[in-house]
Every structure is written in C-alpha cells, then in structure tokens.
User: Fold these one by one.
Assistant:
Number 1:
Amino acid sequence: MAGEQGPEQQEGGPEGRHRTWTPASVWRVIGITAAIAASVVGLGFVGYVALIAIALNSWGSNK
Amino acid sequence: MSTLARVLWGTMRAPVVLLLLLYAATGTVVGGSTSASTLLRGMAVVLPFLAYSAVVNDLADVRIDRVNLPADAQRLLAAGAAHRRQLGWVAAVSVVAALAAAATLGRAAVTVAAAGLVVSTAYSLDPVRLARRGILAPLALPACYVATPYLTGVVSARGRVEAGDLPLLVALYLGFVGRIVLKDFRDVRGDALFGKRTFLVRHGRVWTCRVSAAFWVGGAALLVWARPHATPAYVLSTLAGTVLALVLLRRLATVAGRRQEEWLVSALAIVGRGLLVVLLADLAVATAGLAPAPATAVVAGFAVAFGGQALQMRRHGPSRRATPVATGATGSAEAAYPLVR
C-alpha cells in the first residue's frame, strides 16, 4: 500500500519504460507550483518554507 | 563524525524542525519581514533551543523511548550509541548557543529564549516534570514549541513584541494543543507501561479526540478572527481544513488497528501544517501588498495541495516511513495498550 504512492511509478514493457502519475504526485506538483508562484510574486521565504513542508508530508509523523 | 556531533544531529528531527520553522516564519512575517536572512537569524536561536529541549527530553524518557522507538536512529541514548554525559555536554552548548544568538537580536530575544529554555526544562526534568502531569503536558509544551519560535521571529523582524501580535499567538497555541494531544497515540504503549500519565493514558481515545477537536475549532476560529483583513481564500481554506480535521478525528476515535491509527495521526499533522502554510502565505500576501487574483491562487494552491496530501496519507500511509515498527521489548507494552482504548 505505502509503496503505491511514490512520486511516479515506472513500468517496463515492450514499448520501454514510462511514468504513471499517481494522486500523490498530483498534490505535490500543485504544492510545488504554488510555492514557485509564491517566490515569483515576491512572498520571500514563504515558497521555500512551503516546499520543505510539502516534501516532508510524505513521511509518517505525529507532529 | 564525533559522538557529540551525532548527538546534536540526532536532536534535529525533521518534523519538529519544520514545525518550529513554520512558527518562526509566521512570527517573522507578523513582524513585517519576508526576508530569508531575517528568518535565518531567528532560526539561529530556535535550533539550539530545539537541541536543548530534545536532549533533556531524551535524558528523561530514555526507558520509554527504548519501548516506543527502539529502531529510531536519532535516539542515540535509547539506542545505546551515546552516554548521558555526552548529552549533558550538548545541552550545555545548546543553551550557550541559543542565548548568544538571541543576544545579537536584543534583550527581548534573550528574554524569550531564556523563558523557553526554563519551560522546556520544567517540561522534561524533575522535580516539576510537566510531561507526566496529564493535561498540563500538552498545555505547557506549546509554550516552548509555539511561543519561543513565534516571538523570536517577531523580535528578529521588528525588534520588539506588540500587543497586536498576541491574538495570533493564542490561536497558534490552541491549534498546537489540539495536535499535540494526538502525538501520544504513537507513544501510548511505553507511556502506559512506565506509568507516564498522559491525557490519552488517563482518559482514553474518545475523550482525547474530543479535547483535540475542541482545541482545533477554537484555534481555527481565532485564526480567522485575528485576521480581519484576510483573503476569502484564507478563510475558506481554514474552514475546510478544520472540517477535514474533525472528520479525521471522528475516525480516529473509533478506528481499530495501529497502522490506521498512525496514518490518521499523520494525516492530521499534514492538515495542521497546511493551516500554518496557508496562514503564512496570507500574512505574506498582506505584507507584500499582492493583488487579489495571485494572492487567491497562491493561498488556494497550498490549501488544495496539503488537503490532498492529507487524504493521501489517510488512505495509503507514508511513502517514507519515519515511525519504526515496534519489536522485542514492546510485548508487555502491547498488553498495556487495551487499557487506553
């Protein structure tokens, strides 16, 4: 179960390897896009702090 | 790497560092700055403060950590990879480093750092040891983990604290209490085994979830009330995040199974982080004087991303497992677990 939601899964086959998007990658991409937008529009460190939070959200943590 | 450096590194637990970073960043923006260098000056106080707090807590809870976190490589004392004296040295160095960094920010920062260090000591060590005193523990811990970084951030940006900064601090405090009572789900086995009377051990999961829900709602209401000029996206995001938290808490109150329980608590942690990031973005939008359309896009983007990640965690669990599987000595602790269900 936990292994099903990596950033992207690679599959082999006669047509070569290709990437399959999962919901986990979609949420991450939305968050990263918002973080980049925050930096571009001049919100200073907000984008960087948000990026760290988005990266750590794939960890199981009680805090 | 020397043992002292490894002990110091072991205190830098990523989720806790992130939490304190979010509070420090919020304080910095409240103080009127979105400059990374201002935030880093505040973190120069906050990180040694965290190292001290983690070390004294590890010293106090070493027996419990051997049950709850036997495979956690960052708990060097519990793992037998460091001695108590080495942790004592790291604690002493951390106190000096926190106060020295605070001194560069002025007298107000020194007062904040010193107060945080005193409360942190009282939380973990005898004779006060608030960590063992039921509801007092989750009420006292935020004084360290919310007030110290938030006020340090404010002082780092503005040089002083004003009365208008405090409603947001109270809102963050309430929200943190709502989250921190849930951390004991992970530790309940060792806590029950060693007689650590946390709120969860004393009152069980249903009342713990009810209390958490009350603090989540109170904190969210104050988060909105304290920001009369917030964007509609912020208000809606805070409302949606709180509703999601309540749904997850309702499930946590009745769930059977340790893995589901861990995933729910992790999902609630993500919702909490999301609320903080949305708040941070909305505060920065106001500071930067951003137009409504891009402001809404940024705030809503963060809300959607964190909400999605929380639901993903709820359904599938972590893709990187940070909480170790308990083994060995936990057998008798598992037997104690039904006591708190």
Note: Chain A has two helices and two strands.
Number 2:
Amino acid sequence: MFYRESGQFKTRYQDDQAVFTIAQDRYFVYAVVAFAYLVIPLWADEYWYEAVLIPFLVFAMATIGLNLLLGYAGQLSLGTGGFMAVGAYSAFKLITAFPDLNVIVAFLIAGLIAALVGILFGIPSLRIKGFYLAVATLAAQFFLTWMFNKIGWFYNNNPSGTLTAPPREMLGYTITSAHATPQTRYMIALILVTVFAVIAKNLIRGRIGRSWMAIRDMDIAAEIIGFRPYRAKLLAFGISSFYCGVAGAMLLFLWLGSVETEAFDINVSFQVLFMVIIGGLGSMLGSFLGAAFITLVPVFLVNAPHLVGLEMPTDTQTNIEVMIFGGLIIFFLIVEPHGLARLWQIAKEKLRRWPFPY
Amino acid sequence: MSQDRNIGSVLLDVDNISLSFGGVQAIQNVSFNVREGEVRAIIGPNGAGKSSMLNCINGFYHPQQGVITYKGVPRKQMRPHVAASQGIARTFQNIALFSGMSTLDNIMTGRNLRMKVNFLFQALYFGPARKEEMEHRLAAEKIIDFLEIEAIRKTTVGQLPYGLQKRVELGRALAAEPDLLLLDEPMAGMNSEEKEDMCRFILDVNDEFGTTIVLIEHDMGVVMDISDRVLVLDYGKGIADGTPDEVRANSQVIEAYLGVGHD
Amino acid sequence: MEILTAIFVSPFLDIASSPVFFAEVVISGILTGVLYSLVALGFVLIFKASGVFNYAQGAMVLFAALTLVGLMEHGAPEWLAIILTIAIMGAIAFVIERFMLRPLVNQELITLFMATIGLNFVLEGFGQMLWGSNVKALDIGIPDNPFEIHIGTESILLGTFDIYAAVVGAVLVISLSVFFHKTTIGRALRAVADDHQAAMSVGIPLRTIWIIVWSVAGLVALVAGIMWGSKSGVQFSLSLIALKALPVLILGGFTSIPGAIIGGLIIGVGEKIAEVYWGPLFGGAIENWFAYMLALVFLLFRPQGLFGEKIIERV
C-alpha cells in the first residue's frame, strides 16, 4: 500500500531512464547513504570498522568490478586477485617513490595500470569463451602473483616480502597506515566507493552497458547490430580491472596496512566471484549485497559459538566454519540462483501488494 | 499492392555466389539482384540455402566464389559490423534477441551505430551523453509506437511470447534506419492475425521509408501478395526468378515444392 | 643480449649436452603427468556425463585418501580399507546427488560450478575434521624399488612405483573409454551430458545416472589419491591439484578421456622441462604458472583444446 508507484508520472524520458524511477526507492537509497555517511561514523567501533565496514567497502569495489565483467559483459574471469595485486603493488610503488603524490591520485593511477594489465590479459577473450576463458584468466592470476612474489623491486626489496603502507596525509588528516584512524580510512573508502558506484551505474545504463549485455547474451547478433565484440570485451576487461586495481590499493592502504602476496591469491578471486554470484549477476545492488554477505558470514561464524556459550577447539571450529561456508553457498544457490538481488526484487513485489495478499 | 512502389536502380547485386561447408554445397552459382525500394522474396523448400544467402549478404558467411556488390561497391568478403554500418539490418529465423534485456533496451541497441559520445562522458551521464541518449530514446519510442508494442517496452524479452519477440526483433532492425532490410522468416510460427499485422508493418516500412526489403518466407499467400519479384532456390541453386505470377506458373518451381517424381 | 641468449640458446645447449639427463627429466615429467591425468579423468567423467565442472574433484581426491589412511590407521587391512573407502565414496555420491544436484537440475552451468566450489569447502572441512589435518603417509604396498636403465656411460634412475602409476593410468583410461562408448549406460551418460531435459524425456533416470557417475568419479579420485598420497603423503595441498588439472583439461578437451591422458602428459613434461632448464633464470617456481601459460597459448590457436568438440555457432 505504501510502496506503489501510482501517482508517480514521468513526463520526460530523462525521468524514465533515471536510476531510481520509483520515489520510494530513491528515498530509501538516500536514507542508506545518509546513514553510511552520518550515522555510522558516530557509533561504530574499531572492531566494526576493521572487521566489517572497511573490508565490505574494499570488496564492494572489487565486486562491482567483477560484476561489470562477468554479470554485464558475460566474461568469466578468475584473475580478480591478480588484478587487485596489480593495483596494490602499483600504488605502493607510486606512493613510496613519490612521497608528495596525493594518495587518491596514486590510487587512480594504480587503477589505470591495472586496467592496462587487464586489457592485456583480456586479449584472448576474442577467441576464447566460457570456462576456457576462465582458465586463461587463471594464467593471469598465477603469473601475476608469482611475479610480485619473485621480483624484489615490487616490494622495495623488503626482506620479509611484505608491503607496508607508509603514512600519508591529505587535507591535514593522516589517511593511510596504522596511524590513520579507522574512521578516516572508512570515510575515504566510502567516498571512493560512492563515486565509482555512480560511475558504474552510468556506464551500465548507457550505450556501453548495452553493448556489454549484447555481447553477453548473444555476441553473434551483437556483431550484426554493429557492436564490435572485441572492443567491448577489452573495454570490459579494462574497466573491470580498474575497479579491482583500486580495490587492491584500498585493501593495502585503507584496510590491512600490510600485505603479502597471499592476500591476492586464488582464494580472493573465488571470494569475489562468490560475492558476485550470491549478490546477483548483473546487478549493482547485488554487488553490495554479495560483498556484505560474504564479509559478514565469517565474522558471524567466528563470533556465534561464543554468543551461544559454546567453546570449541580452534581447528574444529575452523573446519566447521569452512563446512558451513560451503554449505551456505550451496544452499543459497539452490534457494535463489539469481542471488540476493532477486530476493530483494521479490520482496519489493510483495511489498507493493502489502498488506493485501494478492 | 506493388504497383505504387517507387523502385529505383540496383542496390544489391549478387553475382555467381557459391558457398560450401566442409563437404556440403549450400549455394551453387546463384545470381540475382535487388532494386532499391522493392520487396524481394526468396523462397524454396527447407534446406535450399535461403538463410545461408542472407548470411552471405551481411557477411556472416564468406562465399568461396562470387562477388556481392552493394551500393556499387563490389565485395568478396563482407563483415557483419561493416554491413551494419553500411545500412544493412536483419532479423533471424531463430530470433537472436538479447534475452536478458528489455524490449526498449533491445531496440536501443539497434541505435548503437548512431551513438557517438565517448565513454568518459558516458561515465558521467550528463551533458552530451544524456542528450544523445534521449534523442535515441525518442527514435526508439517511435518504433515502439509503430509496432504497437508500448505495453511490453520494459519487459525482459526472454519472457515474451514468440510472436512478440519477432516483432521486437523487427523493431531492433528498424532502429538502425537501414537501407536494406533482410528478414528471415519473419512470420514463422504466427497465427493469421499476427501474420496480417506483420505484413502491414513490413509494407508500411517499405512505403514510408522506402526501405528495400529482402524477405525469406514460406507462406505463399504472403509472398505473392506483397513482393515485387521472387527468387526461388532449391538445393542451393536458383531455379526461377521473376514476378510472383511468373514464378507461380513455373513448372520447375512446382516440381520442387510438390516433388514430382522423375522418370 | 645476454638475456636473449640465456632464454633462447643456453637451455637448448644444456639439453643437447646431456640427452640422458634430458630423458630422465622427460620421464619424470611423464610420471607427474600421469598423476595429473588421473585427477583430470575425474573431471572429464563428471563433465562428460552431466555437463558439470566439478571443482570439488580435488577435495574428493583428498577425502578419499584421508579416509583410506584413516581406516588403515584404525587397523583395517588394506583390501578392506579400500573396499570401505569405495563404499563411502559411493555414499557421498548419493548424498551429493540428493542434496545438491537434484535441487539444481536444469540450472545454468555456472550455478552448478559454483555449487561444486561450495562442495569443495564442505568436503575439505569435513575430511579434516574427521581425520585430522597432519600430513599422513600412505602405504598400501605398492613397491617402490629403484632401478636403473643404463644408456652408454650414464643411467636413468626410476622406481617401480612409477611404472605402476603409468600402468594404472593406462588401465583406467582404457576401461573408462570402453565404458563410455560401448555400453548402454555409457550412452545414457553422454545423453545426459548433452541435454538434461531431453535425456529425461526419453526416460533416462537422471538420478541413478548421476549417482553412478559421481561414484565412478569417486573411485577415480580414490585411485588418484592413492597414487599421489603414496608418492608425496596425504595432505591438504592435494586438493590444490584440482587447479592444476584445468590446463590439462584445456589441452585435452573437457570431454575427452584419452585427451585427459595426453593433456596430462604434455603438461607434466612441459612443466618439468621448463622448471629444470628455464627455472633458474627466473628464480624458480615457474611451475606455478607455466601450465596455465601453456594452456593459454594453446587456446589462442585452438580454442576447443586438442580433442574437444569444435564449437560451431549457428544463428
């Protein structure tokens, strides 16, 4: 009853093409954004920032990236970790080599470098499709992590092989490394994610998004329309890797503070893939929902036994967590293979009729 | 019917085309032409090579032999996106819509070649990008209007019934404002009402926009009614070419369809 | 300039200067390759029969090996342990069919693939919870006596174990090939892989078929587990072998049983040669990515693999 569109007329095409055509949706999103920007910084504590909020933002960025490539353009990539690594290491080298360089600018340049690498590894996508392409992207994943591991220059020859984010300031606030407060890092991450989410949405609703979806659905027909599959695919790889690269830089500088190459290994690629699929392929909302879900589940599993008063030996606990995680994924895929975003849509449909059953 | 059409000079000339896949000879030494503004039908029993012929015209298949001349430019090998940019649009026998997108989006994809604004502006979706998007939205809406599919414009095409999907596919082809429209069995699987509608649309397109139409169709009534000239293929060879009346009376054509036994 | 020589000249000189050593490297590669093939076979089976890419195959290998060792540690004689493990793998196949495959029938393949990733986690966690996560030695009595083949003044060192592995691999491949192409069940399996719905509508019992396939894959996993486990101990990293099987499948084609062997051999040999002769140039550990690069290059020229079916797209 409250969630109907009746009475909301659009008289210009512009309004019809807007992101949120239903007023209630718009207000809801404004509310969420306001909450994120205004309410959370007031009462979130360090644990929440470090364990939930900041990683959520980092992975939301990466998930949006992979969703653009997989959900919209239909190209299956398992190289997400590798591209995040490119972003992180590039940002690291840039920031350590140019101490006066603005951190955000460094992130953006790192993203561009990741985009170029992404395009390079996307070249096979013209000839290779589906699972085969996934395996080709694995080549990217393993090669890149091997390269960053082996070549000392990348980690400034630090004997332990780890990258440590040096403290850097912007507008008088320290925003990176352990010296920066979680609150500051959260805000920077939030701003980055907001801006890039808007950009992604704009790309999707225009010509580029359509060309990707055309390629995804039937690339032969797409060619007949005049789309160039090659260009569209490379653009998808490039833009997707840009997002993943920035996410990687965020992971290093805004979240963990120091990483080893393991932080970007194949497990991360799968993690982000889960986020995309469970959130919902081809859905911006889904990217956020999926990232939230996968970020929250381990946190929940770690804390749940304590909450219920159960104590378990750690390795049994780890094993059970792993099993539950796997089980949840299977369960989810059975219940709603189109992901959380679809569940949300269904809920909205029901909400339209509420409180009437039909 | 076809008398009032403004038929001009030759737009498409197919000269001695042969096409084979592995051992199978799909088309053998076929030649014909299509004049500007006319409605040209290609008919023949199943497997005669009709779809393959269309595929050659828009560059999907490359014939081993022969030349296709379009708008005066002879080509040995056409490519699909080049064909598209030259004003050739088509529909498919088995419907090649983008099943994950809405009707509106599908038709908007047809406008693709006319969208020029580069992607940086797209990212910001304002100014030139938005203006261009609205222009094309207007063009797409006109087509939606023309084809009477307003009610389903936001529906995902994968969920539409077959007949409507065919209509949307026609819309997508029209969105490109083509000079040459290739239709591969646009009325297959439709009931007579839907066929009448489809016929009306095709005739309107030819009438209002002067679009040249090449049409593969099995329904003889339709073919005889709306086409100016008919090409008949059988087993990859051209066996008749002329006006509907001429073709109807041709004994080879009758044989091909009814399969009169040879002694 | 030096780098160019180092890459394009020196390794070949090394090879030429000691052909016997080269032969040993090749043979060693062949043997690793056979082991890869065994794992790849499991993939091919399931893919061929249900179109599902079973990411959990590696976890199945690990689980089978863990179960076997676990049972033996509890005092079961080898033959009994093997039979019990086979039965357990069959039971697992039943459970997988009931709770994972059946609800997901007719879903897109990527969904099923994701489900097998979930399954991977479940099996890993479960196996380690049951049997612990230490490295275990697996010994079921396959003799590993070293013997030498003399060629001129040098000799190649081999072990009888390697011969056993090769023979086992060959036997498996041949029997599975025969099974798929000559028996009625084999035909049913191929039908299912092509199109679930069509297979159901001609009366092929999907459920039974799947249980059979996954059980056979479990058996293959057990064999692979035995071989790998005997060679390098049963441990967690066994499940990562699954990832290595992917380039094998690329080369051999996802649906070809002989392809799995040939692909495995090529990858095994290629990897070894690359590591031994080119590895030192790059600081070692080329094996991490060489197989994938090889597969990638291959794909560029032949997107469907050596033996895969050519994908013809019709409009």
Note: Chain B has a mean pLDDT of 85.
